[in-house]
Amino acid sequence: MPVLLRLCCLLSSVFFACGAALADTPMPRKSWPERWQGVVTHVSDGDSLWVRPSTGGAPRRVRLHGIDAPEGCQAHGPAAQAALQRQLKDRQVQLRVLRVDDYGRLLARVWVGGEDVARAMVRQGHAWSYRYRRDQGPYAREEDEARQARRGLFAGAAPERPYEFRRRHGPCARP
Question: Where are the domains of the chain?
Answer without folding.
Answer: 33-168
